[in-house]
Fold:
Amino acid sequence: MKREEALAIVRKQLKEQRYIHTLGVMETAVELATLYGADVQQAELAAIFHDYAKFRSKEEMKRIIIEQQMPQDLLMYSPELWHAPVGAYLVQTEVGIQDEHILNAIRYHTSGRPNMTLLEKIVYIADYIEPNRSFPGVDDVRALAKEHIDRALLRALQNTIQFLMEKNEPIYPDTFHTYNDIAKKLK
Ligand code: GDP
Ligand code: FE
Ligand code: FE
Ligand code: FE
Structure:
């Protein structure tokens, strides 16, 4: 699928600000794929569709998580996590993207997972550092992303876990599992 076609499809699913975020993720994912030698077209499509399900209702997302037998522990944690696996499912069934690498980059863009592929890391980091993001620590991750993608990923996970803990938010176990996986590999 071509970029313009993909953007036209996703634009209908998103509010204006979320579409602008998506353009930033696309641009950043293409830069990172070029820098690290990943497939640029896969990175571009995964980035364009990563937040496809962001504005689906909680009821619809919950129904899909149950009916499609996704990990049921998702339902015990924040609904903020749900649009990632539900997005992968809807991008496959509604848009017709069948590339498992792209679908997994969408599926794991919020929590990460152990043994992430380069493409999955690129979408995770691009989502975190795209030019419209402005939270504390983002510039550190931007700098790290140019040098060493795993160090950028570790820092992004540290920031996310710290941010959630400061808000007394429960943390999804896969977020910790991803952090532990990268932390051990960087030792
Ligand atoms: P976005 O969709 O572009 O806003 O970004 P993400 O998909 O990466 O994250 C969506 C939301 O999920 C953010 O508010 C994160 O803080 C939150 N989030 C990420 N990981 C976890 C987690 O482990 N637990 C909880 N409760 N929230 C998380
Ligand atoms: Fe997201
Ligand atoms: Fe993210
Ligand atoms: Fe996003």
